[in-house]
Each structure stands twice: as structure tokens, then as C-alpha cells.
Specification:
The protein has seven helices and eleven strands. With about 260 residues, it is α/β, with parallel strands linked by helices. The strands form two sheets. Strands 1, 2, 3, 4, 5, 6, 9, 10 and 11 form a nine-stranded mixed sheet that branches.
């Protein structure tokens, strides 16, 4: 991989920019999204199945990458290939059917039945799952490479889960990242090839990181966003033809449309 050629993070989210700038040691430039994120999510949100939330975030990340690459080619003027990266993330709860259901902030605020159902599910499972997916593609086209990370937080038995915000000693949805610092947690990778199968797709990091910055959530944020340096390197290497699946620690899914 050339140290001179930058990669291009496609986002207008300042938090994602800050994470990537910290995690990526090479040259990094920003690019304004040319895809319609709301349209992508609307088209992909109805995807039933036990691993719906995992399928959903993977599909969104891939669609963003393809959409950006396609728009650049339509506009023309590409003098050389640019390596693009995008990311997406979700928060999920295991429901009564042991299916992972994504938490939609808009629905939490507008639909009381959805909010009640998710709060009941969180009371049962006592776990919040944050999933990030980073995808990369060349601006000239070709396959999309994706890698997934996760942060799993367990709500302690002594913490009440309620429907009333700002209740002392309790939590409600959505849970701010910064409030998770005292909870038991686990971070790791997700093998996209095992999603929807009988095999466990979750791969805990070994050893687990030992620190958590309660003010900024610095340790957790790269896993939550998908913009972990190791994950970025894996997908960029795959797009540039340098990834070795036998030696890489993070599973990479390479998808050809």
C-alpha cells in the first residue's frame, strides 16, 4: 500500500472525522457524501430475520460505498483511482424471539409502542449491542470490502431501565455512550460470512482493552462507528489487492454487485 496515496473518508459527521483522524496513521482526506443516506435506509429497513440488525448495518454501509463510487463515475473527471471509505452504525437489542432489533431514534420519539417494546426487551436481555461497519471501494468501481466491529454493554442488575428520562440511578433509551463507562463491556469483531447462519459471528478481542475514557468514550467509539484503525486497514488493503485473509485478524467480506 502506497504511503503517499490518501484514502478518502466520505462523511459530513465531525465525530466520524475525528475518530478516523485518530485511528488512521496514513494520509486521510475528507469527501462530501454524494449518496442519499435517508433513501438508502428507507429502502433497506424491511429485512426480517434473526440477525436483522446486523444485515441492516452491513447493507447500509455497502450501499453508501457503491453509491459514492457510482456518483463519482457519473460526474466524470476521475484522473486516478481513489480509495473511498464509509461507515455506518446501529444500536440493537435482542427481543423476545432472540432476534437483534435495531433501535431507531425517530421511532423511539414518535411511536410509544415501539419504545415500550424495546424497553421491555432491554429489561429482559440487559444488554445493548453497538455495531459499526466500515466499507471501502475504489472510485473506479469494483468490489466492496466490509469489516464489522462491536461494543456490547451489559446493564448491571442494580440499574433500573425506565421510560422516564433523568430518573436518578436509572437509564432509558437512547442510552448516551458516556454513561456506559461503569458497566461491564466487551469489544470485538463480527464475521459477516456467519451472519444468518447457525455459527456465532461475534469474535471478542483478545486481550480486551483495559481502559475506558468515561468523558469521551475514546476506547469505545472506534468499535461503535466501525472506524477502528485495524478495520480500516483491512478493508483498504482488500480493495487495493493487498489483504491476506489468512493472516488478518478482522474478517473481511468482499462483495461483487
Amino acid at each position: 500500500m502506497s504511503a503517499e496515496a490518501p484514502i478518502y473518508l466520505v462523511t459530513d459527521n465531525p465525530k466520524k472525522r475525528a475518530i478516523a483522524q485518530t485511528e488512521w496513521s496514513g494520509a486521510l482526506e475528507m469527501m462530501t457524501p454524494a449518496f442519499d443516506e435517508d433513501r438508502i435506509k428507507a429502502e433497506l429497513q424491511d429485512n426480517p430475520g434473526p440477525d436483522e440488525a446486523l444485515i441492516y448495518v452491513l447493507a447500509i454501509s455497502q450501499a453508501k460505498a457503491r453509491g459514492q463510487g457510482s456518483k463519482l463515475r457519473q460526474e466524470g473527471g476521475i484522473s486516478h483511482a481513489k480509495t473511498l471509505i464509509v461507515s455506518d452504525s446501529i444500536v440493537a437489542i435482542e427481543d423476545e424471539n432472540e432476534s437483534l432489533q435495531a433501535i431507531n431514534r425517530d421511532e423511539l420519539q414518535s411511536d410509544e409502542s415501539v419504545r415500550r417494546r424495546l424497553l421491555d426487551a432491554l429489561n429482559r436481555s440487559r444488554q445493548l449491542l453497538f455495531v459499526g461497519c466500515v466499507s471501502s471501494i475504489s472510485s473506479t468501481g469494483g468490489p466492496v470490502a466490509s469489516a464489522m466491529t462491536y461494543y456490547r454493554a451489559t446493564v448491571p442488575d442494580g440499574v433500573a431501565i425506565v421510560d422516564t428520562p433523568l430518573t436518578p440511578g436509572a437509564v432509558t433509551l437512547p442510552v448516551p455512550i458516556e454513561s456506559l463507562s461503569e458497566w461491564p463491556w466487551e469489544v470485538g469483531f463480527i464475521d459477516p460470512s456467519k451472519i444468518g447462519t447457525a455459527l456465532d459471528p461475534f469474535i471478542p478481542c483478545s486481550p480486551q482493552p483495559q481502559t475506558f475514557d468515561s468523558e469521551a468514550g475514546n476506547m469505545a467509539r472506534p468499535y461503535i462507528s466501525g472506524l477502528l484503525g485495524e478495520a480500516i486497514r483491512a478493508v483498504v488493503s482488500a480493495v487495493q489487492g493487498e489483504h491476506n485473509s489468512k493472516t488478518g485478524r478482522i474478517p473481511v467480506l468482499i462483495s461483487v454487485e
